[in-house]
From TrEMBL:
<dbReference type="InterPro" id="IPR017871">
    <property type="entry name" value="ABC_transporter-like_CS"/>
</dbReference>
<keyword id="KW-0472">Membrane</keyword>
<keyword id="KW-0378">Hydrolase</keyword>
<dbReference type="InterPro" id="IPR003439">
    <property type="entry name" value="ABC_transporter-like_ATP-bd"/>
</dbReference>
<dbReference type="InterPro" id="IPR027417">
    <property type="entry name" value="P-loop_NTPase"/>
</dbReference>
<dbReference type="GO" id="GO:0055052">
    <property type="term" value="C:ATP-binding cassette (ABC) transporter complex, substrate-binding subunit-containing"/>
</dbReference>
<dbReference type="InterPro" id="IPR015855">
    <property type="entry name" value="ABC_transpr_MalK-like"/>
</dbReference>
<dbReference type="Pfam" id="PF17912">
    <property type="entry name" value="OB_MalK"/>
</dbReference>
<keyword id="KW-1003">Cell membrane</keyword>
<dbReference type="Pfam" id="PF00005">
    <property type="entry name" value="ABC_tran"/>
</dbReference>
<feature type="domain" description="ABC transporter">
    <location>
        <begin position="4"/>
        <end position="234"/>
    </location>
</feature>
<keyword id="KW-0813">Transport</keyword>
<keyword id="KW-0547">Nucleotide-binding</keyword>
<dbReference type="InterPro" id="IPR008995">
    <property type="entry name" value="Mo/tungstate-bd_C_term_dom"/>
</dbReference>
<dbReference type="GO" id="GO:0008643">
    <property type="term" value="P:carbohydrate transport"/>
</dbReference>
<protein>
    <submittedName>
        <fullName>sn-glycerol-3-phosphate import ATP-binding protein UgpC</fullName>
        <ecNumber>3.6.3.20</ecNumber>
    </submittedName>
</protein>
<dbReference type="InterPro" id="IPR003593">
    <property type="entry name" value="AAA+_ATPase"/>
</dbReference>
Length: 352
């Protein structure tokens, strides 16, 4: 049982706030992903859990015990870093065994534990090699095995895939997902890659500038972004956001009229919709939607992405892969009220 509790954690350096009032309970066995752009405070949050950074205020509890004053080695957490951090002079076997040695675990059990961890990450054929003679993906798997071998209470992973090329990232991601299913160990995973977050997480914490913006399952965050920051950070392409006015349930902006929206709202708002939710018309004007000229066309293989301009901003709409048009041609797409996300024009907070 290893529940991790972060109680109103702050991290400040002088006047600079790295992390502000981070307050969350991570239940036993949860795979939690901290997601956000560079500098938002994800690594700092994780380093505080590991004990590599001291919280300025607030309490960190692991398994019900306050650990603020415990050394990293006494917290029973295992970390996997972006840089792998392997010992170059040791073989793969020795690297994986290392945590058992430093923790004085009965040597009679080492071989079995190392072999089991190596098997889980499919490294049994590489145990005699040095890290220098492995590919990046294999090195990262050694780092994973070294974290697994001591059966920690909590796994902390800091961008473990970011040094791998795109293809390896996908296969290693699948390996991590499978491992986490097998091991059922509470995991806190840091990334700036929203696809990684969406595919791996039980819950995602979206952060920006030291603040938690939203905590939710990948589906909640995708379907109900709490504000325009989350809306524009999650999804590929990002959600289209258009500034305009709403009155009597009708939203208007340049080239856009959308009907059937909440009649209680009035004034300036930001309206969002996802590229894949709009429906390209058969050539006729859209009664509720966008009527504009094609600005660019991108062939994606399984679809065609059309962009048009609204208030001088680009808006993307997904069309069939067979859709044929040209830059400058008229383009219409229906945007029904049901696919719209409405946000406060000033604060960016979700309205409905
Ligand atoms: P990245 O994805 O680039 O690693 P991050 O979200 O993990 O970013 P952090 O490393 O947690 O961000 O840093 C959060 C903020 O705190 C950044 O603005 C960073 O410059 C600042 N920061 C980190 N360490 C220190 C330090 N020792 N002293 C002062 N500021 C720091």
């Amino acid at each position: 049982m290893a529940e991790v509790q972060l109680r109103h954690i702050d991290k400040r350096w002088g006047d600079f706030i790295g992390v502000k009032d981070f307050d969350l309970t991570i239940p036993d066995k949860e795979f939690l992903v901290l997601l956000g752009p560079s500098g938002c405070g994800k690594t700092t949050t994780m380093r505080m859990i590991a004990g590599l950074e001291e919280a300025t205020s607030g309490e960190i509890l692991i398994d019900g015990k306050v650990v603020n004053d415990l050394e990293p080695k006494d917290r029973d957490v295992a970390m996997v870093f972006q840089s792998y951090a392997l010992y170059p002079n040791m073989s793969v076997y020795e690297n994986i065994r290392f945590p058992l040695k430093v923790r004085n675990i009965d040597p009679a059990t080492h071989d079995e534990k190392v072999m089991r961890a190596a098997e889980m990450v499919e490294l049994t054929n590489f145990l005699h090699r040095r890290p220098a003679d492995l590919s990046g993906g294999q090195r990262q798997r050694v780092a994973l095995a070294r974290a697994i071998v001591r059966e920690p209470n909590v796994f902390l992973m800091d961008e473990p895939l970011s040094n791998l090329d795109a293809k390896l990232r996908v296969s290693t991601r699948a390996q991590i997902k499978n491992l986490s299913h097998e091991l059922q160990i509470t995991t806190i995973y840091v990334t700036h890659d929203q696809i990684e977050a969406m595919t791996l997480a039980d819950r995602v914490v979206v952060m920006s500038a030291g603040n938690v913006q939203q905590v939710g399952t990948p589906t909640e965050i995708y379907n109900y972004p709490a504000n325009t920051f989350v809306a524009s950070f999650i999804g590929s392409p990002a959600m289209n956001l258009m500034k305009g006015t709403i009155e009597g349930g009708v939203f208007t902006a340049e080239n856009v009229t959308i009907t059937g929206l909440d009649k209680r709202l009035s004034g300036n708002i930001t309206l969002g919709f996802r590229a894949e939710d709009a429906v390209v018309t058969d050539g006729s004007e859209a009664a509720s939607g966008i009527n504009a000229k094609v600005f660019s066309i991108e062939l994606l293989g399984d679809a065609t992405m059309i962009t048009v301009k609204v208030n001088d901003e680009l808006v993307a709409i997904k069309a069939d892969k067979e859709y044929v048009t040209d830059i400058g041609q008229p383009f219409s797409a229906t945007i029904s009220a049901g696919i719209c996300h409405l946000f406060d024009a000033e604060t960016g907070e979700r309205l409905s």
